[in-house]
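Late entry, written up from scratch paper. The run itself happened at the end of the previous shift, but nothing got recorded in the book at the time, so transcribing now.
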Amino acid sequence: MRPFDSRVTHPTPAERVLSILMAAHSMTVVSDGHEPVEVHRLDGTGAMGHIHLHEPAEAGQPQSGPRIPVRLEFTDIAPTPVRDRTRARVTVTGLLSAPYSTETAESTCMEFGQAVIEDHTGRAFVTLDELQDTEPDPIATSEAGMLTHLVDEHGELVPLLLRLVQPQPGKGVLRVHPLAMDRYGVTLRLEYPGSHRDVRLPFAKAVTRIDQAGPQIHAMLAAARRASHRNQLLA
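Output as recorded:
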């Protein structure tokens, strides 16, 4: 676990993996010798809600029953209408004592192998110890609703945030949308004709409670209004 610090502007791979697991409402379960199972949770609970990850068995420890290799696949999709909405993919591998089934309690306990997160920057591996030592992001399960509310109800304010981007983006930006939000800040996606790029706007201080997120966004918008220059976003 790392301390909250205003100098920290990006989540660690372990923080990102934990947030994706917490917020995911669907996943694909792939077991050796069995058809992939699509798990969807549309009732507001997370897809990982009934699977328990536990420590790998120690070498030489006797095992009872079968040990079935399994992987859980998650796709992190931006909730806003940006180009290329896939933000990351997470794969968690491990072993089950029974073939996976939503109807079988025996298959809800998974011996953890490793977690891998992949995005446009590359690939990172995360251990169970790192996940267990990571504080949950208080924004993780509310991020989608907060970003869609910002776009749907206050979309005219989003271009103001371009005033905070350093260095200033050149002319030719067609659209700007919030791509992601976490306890450390907001990521914007700037779309150009035929291309796009992402920029990071950190909060003044990391969010430790969900009720701190709104004031941080309002402070960011207030700072953008005070900026002396005008952005060049085209309508």
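The first helix runs from residue 13 to 23.
(Scratch paper discarded after transcription.)
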